[in-house]
Amino acid sequence: QVQLVESGGGLVQPGGSLRLSCTASKFMFSSYVMSWYRQAPGKERELVANIRSSGGSTTYADSVKGRFTIFRDNAKNTVYLQMNSLKPEDTAVYYCNAPPLSAVGYWGQGTQVTVSS
Fold first, then answer.
1. pLDDT at residue 26 above 90?
2. Can you give 66-116 as a three-state secondary structure string?
3. What pLDDT shows up at residue 22?
4. How far is Cα 74 from Cα 83, in angstroms, rounded to an integer?
5. How far is CA 23 from CA 2, 78, 115, in A?
6. CA-CA-CA-CA torsion for 102, 38, 18, 6, nearest 10 degrees?
7. Which class for 18: exposed (0-12), middle (13-18), buried (19 or more C-beta within 10 A)?
8. Strands 18-25 and 34-39
9. pLDDT tens digits for range 63-91
10. β-pair partners for 59
11. Which end of the chain is more exposed for a tag (fewer CB within 10 A), N or C?
12. pLDDT tier at 113 (50, 70, 90 boundaries)?
C-alpha cells in the first residue's frame, strides 16, 4: 500500500537548522507535485512549501520564505525540507503529501520539530 514516511525532526535551538526527509513507496512519486505541511498544537494544518514534479519550480509560505528550501530526488522517491534560521513559531508536526493522496485523506505519521532554547 501507499506509504509516506517523514523523518529528520527533533529538538533544535532558535537559529538552528534541520533537514526533513519524506520517502514515498508504492506511489508514482516522480509524477506529482509534492508538498510539506505543518500543524502546530491547537492550529490548523498549513502548507509550507510545494515543488513541481520535475523539481524545477517551488513555492513557499511567506512565513518560511528565505529560510526553508524544498527539493526532491526522484530517483530516491524522496522530498526534503531544509530548514534554516529556525524560530520557536516553526514548532509543529511536519508532514509531506501529494494531491492524489491528500484528496483521499491519506497522511503519514509526520515528524515533530521543536524549536526551543
1. no
2. CCEEEEEEHHHCEEEEEECCCCHHHCEEEEEECHHHHCCCCCCCCEEEEEC
3. 97
4. 20
5. 11, 4, 23
6. -30
7. buried
8. unpaired
9. 999 999 999 999 999 999 999 999 999 99
10. 50
11. N
12. very high
